[in-house]
């Protein structure tokens, strides 16, 4: 019983540490002050997701809908007129969403992926310039060099890992979507799954530029699931209070900050220090990506090179 309580305490402290690290937004100031490209990319994300996307939602709900309600009121002497006004008002609002919000949302997602990749890349360069790259995850710079293959083979392995990682996270996203629809436990389950997914996205580019292999990333992530659940939680919390569209805009607005805080987080040092404080307790591994890995492998086996990729 005492051992179980110690495990629970250890996982709670890991979750708390991850949550705290995700909220260290002051690191973003350091990175942006050290790189003009980082400052520009972060500003572009704020402009697109904050001013344009969330600003458009604010204008719609604060001005457009009230004006439509004034022009096409709910109250009328004739029931048929009220029904027509209601239908026309709803139609115009849906037109606004179809022609503006949904294309803007897709555009922000596609452009955001490119900008987030740049943010991770240049933040890693800042870390290298500040001579702090020796504290990269796993402290295994020698191992990273050994894991990297040379020439065309190394390039092929790198591309293969990126393809596999993208497929795995896509399938994991569908798992989150399915979990959200489950009765009773759906919301809680999707909260944890989405926290893990967002945390992995934040750290993936950092680990990629650090030369950490995909197997090492997944193993480290699943072995320290409580820390990464805590790190991803702040990005999921807006979804508890706002609609999906608004919460996605808020997450897109804040996501560059989470990428930058992840770049400046010494996750292995934090996890090791907590383990020492708890008499060397090690977190138990949870196969978070097991189902996604199985399905991804099955999908890749449908192609001629699938077996090689596996």
Keywords:
single chain; 310 residues; mainly alpha; disordered C terminus
Explain this structure to me?
The chain is mainly alpha-helical and 310 residues long. The chain has 13 helices and no strands. The longest helix is centred in the middle third of the chain and has 51 residues.
Estimate the global geometry from the Cα principal axes. globular
What's the β-strand tally?
A: 0
Gyration radius from CA atoms, angstroms: 23 Å
Distance between the termini: 41 Å
SSE series: HHHHHHHHHHHHH
* Fraction of residues in H or I helices: over 70%
Structural classification: mainly alpha
Main sheet characteristics: none
Helical stretch tally = 13
What percent strand? Answer: under 5%
Mean pLDDT level: 80
Low-confidence stretches: 145-152, 306-310
Membrane topology: Multi-pass membrane protein
Subcellular location: Membrane
GO biological process, one term: macroautophagy
Protein name: Etoposide-induced protein
Short description:
With 310 residues, the chain is mainly α. The protein is 80% helix and 0% strand.
SSE diagram, text form:
Blueprint: H1 2-22, H2 26-34, H3 36-71, H4 79-129, H5 141-147, H6 151-180, H7 186-210, H8 214-223, H9 225-236, H10 244-263, H11 267-277, H12 290-300, H13 306-309
Helix pairs in contact: 1-9, 1-11, 2-3, 2-10, 3-4, 3-10, 4-7, 4-10, 6-7, 6-12, 7-9, 7-10
